Amino acid sequence: MRTPRVVAPFFGVVGTVAVWWLATALFHIRPLFLPAPPDIVSAFRRQPAYLLHEAWATVTETIIGFGIAAAAGLGVAVVLAASRTVERALLPLFVALNSVPKVSVAPLLVVWLGFGPRPKIFMVVLICFFPVVVATMAGLSSTPAELSDLVRSLSASWWQTYVKVRLPWALPQIFVGLKVAVSLAVVGAVVAEISNPNRGLGAVIVLSGTSFDTPLAFAAIVLLALISVVLFYLVASAERLLLPWARAITG
Amino acid sequence: MRTPRVVAPFFGVVGTVAVWWLATALFHIRPLFLPAPPDIVSAFRRQPAYLLHEAWATVTETIIGFGIAAAAGLGVAVVLAASRTVERALLPLFVALNSVPKVSVAPLLVVWLGFGPRPKIFMVVLICFFPVVVATMAGLSSTPAELSDLVRSLSASWWQTYVKVRLPWALPQIFVGLKVAVSLAVVGAVVAEISNPNRGLGAVIVLSGTSFDTPLAFAAIVLLALISVVLFYLVASAERLLLPWARAITG
Amino acid sequence: MISLVEVSHAFRGRAGAVEALAEVDLEIGEGEFVAVIGRSGCGKSTLLRLIAGLITPSSGRVRVDGVMVTRPRPDVAMLFQQPALLPWRSVRDNVLLPAEILRLPRPAYAERAQELIETVGLAGFEKRLPHELSGGMQQRAALCRALLHRPRVLLMDEPFSALDALTREELAGELQRIHMDLRPTTVFVTHSIQEAVLLADRVVVLSPRPGQVRKIVEIAIPRPRSFGHNAHLEEVTEHVAELHELLLT
Amino acid sequence: MISLVEVSHAFRGRAGAVEALAEVDLEIGEGEFVAVIGRSGCGKSTLLRLIAGLITPSSGRVRVDGVMVTRPRPDVAMLFQQPALLPWRSVRDNVLLPAEILRLPRPAYAERAQELIETVGLAGFEKRLPHELSGGMQQRAALCRALLHRPRVLLMDEPFSALDALTREELAGELQRIHMDLRPTTVFVTHSIQEAVLLADRVVVLSPRPGQVRKIVEIAIPRPRSFGHNAHLEEVTEHVAELHELLLT
Amino acid sequence: GCGGSAKDEDPSGASSSPDKVTYLTAFGAVGRDAFAWVAQEKGYFKAARLDVTIQPGSATGENLKNLAAGQAQFASLDLVGAWILAGKGEYKDFRTIAVIHQQTLVSIISLEGSGVASPEELEGKKIGAATGSVNQLLFPAYAKAAGIDATKVQWVNTQPAQLPTLLASRQVDALSTFLIGQRGIEKAANKKAVVLPYSRYLTDLLGNGIITTSKIATGSPDLAARFRDAMLQGLRYTIDHPDEAAQIMKKAQPAADVAAAVGEITLMTPYVTPSGSSSPIGSVTEQRVARALGTLQTANLIPAGLTPSAVVDFSLTPKA
Ligand SMILES: Nc1ncnc2c1ncn2[C@@H]1O[C@H](COP(=O)(O)OP(=O)(O)OP(=O)(O)O)[C@@H](O)[C@H]1O
Ligand SMILES: Nc1ncnc2c1ncn2[C@@H]1O[C@H](COP(=O)(O)OP(=O)(O)OP(=O)(O)O)[C@@H](O)[C@H]1O
Ligand SMILES: [Mg+2]
Ligand SMILES: [Mg+2]
């Protein structure tokens, strides 16, 4: 008798909400600091259309940016994994770039890319890129010796080696990078929106913050969390669909 | 005749600096937007002791937070990997938590934890935790069937299975998580410092920003990048030292 | 000691189910040495996994010591068809793994591990990692590991398949000696009919997929049996021919 | 065709170097079938890897077709000691891998793949993934893959080790037929002296580590040779005994 | 409060050991906040038996939260923003104890030659402002008083630190920000700036002020008074010696820029001195506060009902 798949997550969520509610009630936390769940629900119900509209902006930025970062990260990782020299020359630069606080880059992005969705998408790309690169590189260099011997013995070209063996083998690890990246993607979009709050849930957070409407800010944050969870599990399902063999050879 | 290890990174760095310099010179970019390398060097040379002192604050916060996050992430991942039910109940929560924009959490951390290094360390933990969890979980569930059959056939306890087989096998993947985390760690420290700019390079960035001293801000950013690169390669060397076998069985 | 009653096993896969074993009945007595032969893919490994408790039968009952097998038991050791060595452990530490897991005193077992390593001809390779060994050497390391803690039941899946004829004979001799000494109940899957006849009290012949017990042949030749020319050459040849015939049909 | 001149190979490791091959001299003619036997760990796999161009010798020269081997050649196929199947590809797609890589026309080779799969007895398993196969079935799939593109040179590292005696004989017969048909230059590592004698034109006996050519035995029995009782039984027995003796000392 | 390292020791016990308090600046470490470091450096705090930790503050909202949480006891902030929050009932447990800027410093700033030289020219232009800031909230009132149509202005929301860059890169035509940022903006844009202060039309609003929690204001007025006096002493010294004050701040906060700080201090000097020459620095009258609140009410920023004494502790503001 296995419990259905939704039972556990359901209890997880209900438990958290309950603890949260209890904490706000027991310690008399003011909504200014941490609103109770009903405050948030009512904040949402005051203007659902607005919130969903802004959420949609955030979602599109996130998805486009994530897609670009995934493709670019994969490509770059393949190049880096192909040559030790290139890796030694470029990887430190990527690490350095990645450590530049995004918050302080955001204003520059607006200067360069204007007020539209482009600086936000670019920020998502910036923030997602690195995990994909690191995970893919690790995956590409984890090909078992026997399989790489096999393709070498067939005189496979560099390209064939990657397409037929290294990349498929790396996929489970690439998905680790994608999963980390997708949850950072949402954060990236929001950071950019906070810095130039004309659209998106980030704007909602900033605007409600300045007017001390903490419940509204939390409603936006809850929506963000939902988006993040949905995107994360979309990636996870893609993994399950694409890689049945990976689960079969592990125990 | 292999070129020595430092040649490639050297050319990588020199190349970037050259391109940067050229760009600022050719397009007459003003130091306010993007200072040229010499501006930054002179900004650093004006007050090296101060910058290094603040850098040290950032480094300690980063390292402590990273250490805590690595340990906690490992522990949590082991628990999640051990039970599908627990995973289903908790993982969505972690994903949700991870998607809460850190920038909007930072002020709350100060409210709760004061002005000292604690909110910064906590932020580093928040930001590093998730990649470690995801990567470790993936690593733990990648044990080859033959090895998990082996320990099962020896009636190993749950604990033994993890300590003797699953964790060692997961180490290469755990290091992917640690590498991603360590470079996020620096970002986390800076985000917290920006929000409460009393110490650290984040404070330098904010304060120099308000006084329009962009070269100084960039000097801080360059220091951050250096710190990030050094920490990243420390983790990478730990990996090389600990896992010679992992390289040996891959080709 | 070991009893299988109407044991069937089918693997479910995307491309349909594979019936690996069908209605297998088998009784193995305490201390007995049973060899299992059969065509490739007929379910020999599946049979061992069922006894080891690594998988549970689709139907039927598997008992060890009268107890239903639902999970692995510490007194049953399994030697897998693949060496399954831990790549980060030296040969010695791989061999010592069962002692660590069963919390046996290390010094005594370290000594025993060394003896076993020398017996199988791996002296000098104790500190090397598995990837530095040849295929046959890896298999011998796995053999040491299975023998280390003197299990009551020994399940061996083609333990000598990667070894040359001579090493094979030597180690088969060694195995016979160990069996006469400690009398572990042994189930020995092999591809060599010769080896089966020379080692086993009984030889179980499985039919091709789905594996069913086609015949059980008693080998009554007294022990110790030697592998070269010997007094019972005729009986050996007869059994080999009979088993060969059984496999063919 | 293949020539090795004073070839030595040592593996460097943390625990010191292992001398795997020492001063091996060997000439193999076009279309010849050479079997290599030797104790486990004596350097047989290393020898094949050197010829395949997967590793380069520490000293000495390896030539194929008069050209120094510095990397793998597409006309040389290697069958590894491990099956080395791609876990995400079905049996058929694994077998077709060389055709894809060498850009051979797919339809023709798909047909050939199917024939080979049927020959080795894997019909019905074309669409299954490797983990759904038994050890011997995986080895047979790898065999199909090595034979697919009719290579000029065939390097086989214990291709039948995981197979039962009967399947082994069948496939050895098949291999002989293929060899008589297409005449690939074949280097065949085996643990079975019998098999070596029945398949090879010459049998190379390697001494234990470091591997050196101890003796090369010509097998002059006319082909096709059959595996059951045959007219040359005496010669076979003689050769087997001689090789056995050579391995022993 | 949520605990933390709150340091509210009993201030009534007039022991010899100084009272430990934490003070938040209005915004980082810029010229307008220099006087706190001056008070520290000149020993005014010590003389008042105070041990003050100066923390760079972030914004009105964050400063109030930290005050509420007990992480700080005193703060500087923009009084208009703080009073709007009090008026809306979001957070009321604070009292103003001194006024630093007697008029609001909020202004429209644009660059010479950008076509914005008077309020009328703002119509149809893009104005950058910190998201949801007082500057934006007050604009309708300003527009009405200046006789322009507030709806014809397009707002661009950003972070405060980003504003000069936006103007310099011509992404916006004008900014709404504090006029003391003028020098920095000129430095950033390399051009002279045009400043249109809100105070020209909204004469009653106040700028920055020093606040404390109502608990301290009522429970330990002595502590608050000592702190106020030390701060105002520092403020006085600062406007008398802008260069030295900037140097002092630079010493404490090396990332600060001396020239920009001197610029801010000189620009804010006229706003620090109260109009009636008899009233001292930092003081404010109840009528003035009432008028300021009235302005906010007519601008629909707060509901009616907020009394001056609910936001200002007149027993603690400086008296002549
Ligand atoms: N994990 C699995 N999933 C699906 N089918 C399996 C699995 N393992 C084995 N089989 C199938 O079960 C049958 C028996 O497999 P088993 O490994 O027991 O054979 P075997 O007798 O050990 O063969 P060999 O001598 O080749 O090792 C085979 O047909 C195989 O395809
Ligand atoms: N990658 C390696 N690193 C270090 N030593 C190795 C490596 N591969 C093989 N050796 C050593 O080289 C020697 C020869 O190995 P090889 O695999 O050629 O033996 P083999 O004759 O094929 O043995 P088997 O019959 O057991 O497969 C062995 O002693 C082994 O320990
Ligand atoms: Mg098997
Ligand atoms: Mg070998």
Automatic annotation (TrEMBL), chains A, B:
It is a multi-pass membrane protein. Residues 55-235 form the ABC transmembrane type-1 domain. Gene3D superfamilies: MetI-like. The chain crosses the membrane at residues 7-29, 63-82, 89-115, 121-140, 174-195, 215-236. One of its GO terms (biological process) is transmembrane transport. It comes from the Bacteria. The keyword Transmembrane helix applies. This is ABC transporter permease. It comes from Planosporangium mesophilum.
From TrEMBL, chains C, D:
It comes from the Bacteria. Gene3D superfamilies: P-loop containing nucleotide triphosphate hydrolases. CDD domains: ABC_NrtD_SsuB_transporters (cd03293). The keyword Cytoplasm does not apply. Residues 2-233 form the ABC transporter domain. GO terms for molecular function: ATP binding; ATP hydrolysis activity. Keywords: ATP-binding, Nucleotide-binding, Transport. The keyword Metal-binding does not apply. This is ABC transporter ATP-binding protein. It comes from Planosporangium mesophilum.
